[in-house]
Amino acid sequence: MTVKFLVKEKNQIEMEISGIDTALLYYLVEKLNATSGVEFAATKKEHPLSDVQKLIVKTKSANAADITLKALKEIEEETEEFKKKFQQIVK
Length: 91
Known about the structure:
Elements: E1 2-8, E2 12-18, H1 22-33, E3 38-45, E4 52-59, H2 64-90
Antiparallel strand pairs: 1-2, 2-4, 3-4
C-alpha cells in the first residue's frame, strides 16, 4: 500500500492511496461523514482499471488528519471486537 498526501491543511486532506480495498475506504468515508465536525468526506477512483484512489476529507474547524486517524482507530476496534466474537462461535 502506498499513501501520498496531495493536500495537507488543517481543515482538509486529500490523499492518493493505492493497494487498498475499496470497501475499506467506503467504510472510512461513511464513518467520517457520520462524525461531528466533518463537512465532507469522499473517495473517488480516477479510472476503473487503476488501483489508485483518492480520499478527501474536509472539516469545519477540526483537524482533518486527527479526525481521520480517530475514525481509523474506531474501525480497528470494531474489527477486533468482531474477530473475537467470530473466534468464540467458530470454536
